[in-house]
Amino acid sequence: xxxxxxxxxxxxxxxxxxxxxxxxxxxxxxxxxxxxxxxxxxxxxxxxxxxxxxxxxxxxxxxxxxxxxxxxxxxxxxxxxxxxxxxxxxxxxxxxxxxxxxxxxxxxxxxxxxxxxxxxxxxxxxxxxxxxxxxxxxxxxxxxxxxxxxxxxxxxxxxxxxxxxxxxxxxxxxxxxxxxxxxxxxxxxxxxxxxxxxxxxxxxxxxxxxxxxxxxxxxxxxxxxxxxxxxxxxxxxxxxxxxxxxxxxxxxxxxxxxxxxxxxxxxxxxxxxxxxxxxxxxxxxxxxxxxxxxxxxxxxxxxxxxxxxxxxxxxxxxxxxxxxxxxxxxxxxxxxxxxxxxxxxxxxxxxxxxxxxxxxxxxxxxxxxxxxxxxxxxxxxxxxxxxxxxxxxxxxxxxxxxxxxxxxxxxxxxxxxxxxxxxxxxxxxxxxxxxxxxxxxxxxxxxxxxxxxxxxxxxxxxxxxxxxxxxxxxxxxxxxxxxxxxxxxxxxxxxxxxxxxxxxxxxxxxxxxxxxxxxxxxxxxxxxxxxxxxxxxxxxxxxxxxxxxxxxxxxx
Length: 556
Description:
- This is Murein L,D-transpeptidase.
- It comes from Imbroritus primus.
- By secondary structure, the protein is α+β, with helices and mostly antiparallel strands.
- It has 18 helices and 20 strands.
- Strands 6-7-8-17-15-14-9-18 form an eight-stranded mixed beta barrel. A four-stranded antiparallel β-sheet has the order 10-13-11-12. Strands 1-2 form a two-stranded antiparallel ribbon.
- The model is unreliable at 1-48 and 535-556 (pLDDT under 50).
């Protein structure tokens, strides 16, 4: 290459070229420019490791090349963007490269570009387009085993199992395929029923039996969404099956199932299918961030759904062993972070060591206003040396503010942690626990905590966690919870706990559910995915992801 550049350079320094040499050089330059333009059209300058001749066999294209081009063209079925892989240009180039006697340079260019595009596609499909840490300051979920897209693609083509390998690169969670199917359905929905927004109701509340000017549009929407059967007639009043359809819709959208057509329900009904489809695309991207379910058990908390699920993985099958409501951190100021850690301890009748930030902002001011609160809540001071002081004084409160003492709450019926705490050591000081306020689980929106996750059925969760310790039956678990004296046990087998964020989910027999973007994470992800992509780099997991700088809490 160096010698060729020197020769060309010396030729341009010559004062005169012969006509034949001039014509030859012009043709050569024109061909070079055409190849450069073709490369620029098909893809940006990339840094992927490209395996030469991957799609070629004896100077001709392998049959798998057509399948690869088709996969890239239909990447939107996964919520990905075909343009990211230059699908249209590759299809055109494939047609040219498939002609008999195709130029070897053209074949080589096509081979290289298809390899680059497929590596990026596999990386995106397996690990996502966006690095979650670039939009979440508090995100600590392992991405799993490093994924070498180049080696994976090379093996898939060599074994003639490309289609199977691409399917295997998708997230293994069953809900991924279910959401993918739902995405196709929502894209195909008739948007005509959303051309005119449903009119507001008088007093922002329509109870069953009332009259409403939007009954026809409401019926059409519920039929289109599957909450009412096709052919449902438009009633004269808001009653009967139409109320049932609204209740079905409310259940699927995280709303109170009261059949009352209020502002929140009406707002959700006015969301067009295209926005719902985008919500599904964001959920698919988030699923690509998650690690594989590694067994034999795992606990997953979905924050915007306010639900915990306990999974058992055996022989490749994933079974849900427990499902329960949870309370998560307040959206305004104490959001529950997203991370993965192993549960290692269970603490019965726990103490609550009040975090310094809560003590300074809430507990100390409250004690100064109402000193009786100290005894009512079973509080005590603990010095840096571990000495326990059960006397309330201004000096002790000042010591707390200076960081020389801490406040803790003794075990008992008013303890903020309830009577059991599930500990998975982490930098955020987050854990699962019970609560002395179980009535809050009846709410449809449950973001009331300081960041920890309160569980509705702690005994069921403890039984799941301790199932390999038969001596810990339900009676013993309850006795330890009610004892009033703090005790801690170490788990023989740690159980992974993953706190995730998904606003779209298929459950309950294949029904599609949507949840409010509680913390605004979907808004950040949507903005990140719309940003122009930089050239991917050679590497393992995460290669090709969009590097963005938007973070939660920062201006978008």
